[in-house]
Write a structure and sequence with these properties.
Elements: H1 2-21, E1 27-33, H2 38-44, E2 47-57, E3 60-69
Antiparallel strand pairs: 1-3, 2-3
């Protein structure tokens, strides 16, 4: 299952970039094929799944996830 691990690595890289570029309270919307073990990856990347929907894209089952950043405790923010 090297394809899965490659996809997971790409997804983690993508989420890391999103995390750097997102403003606080920002969201990321991502479309993934159904069956991806996604929740654990998301939480490892510092996001939580706010909403998810099942959809069909070209006859293939897929899921749309709306992610939001989990506030990091102990990190200094501008609003103190």
């Amino acid at each position: 299952s090297s394809i899965v691990s490659d996809a997971e690595a790409d997804l983690l890289k993508f989420l890391a970039v999103c995390r750097q570029k997102l403003k606080p309270q920002g969201n990321v919307v991502i479309l993934l094929s159904a069956g991806t073990n996604f929740a654990s990856l998301v939480e490892r990347s510092g996001f939580s799944v706010k909403e998810s929907y099942g959809v069909y894209v070209g006859g293939q089952a897929a899921n749309i996830y709306k992610l939001t950043l989990i506030p990091v405790k102990g990190k200094t923010t501008t609003s103190q």
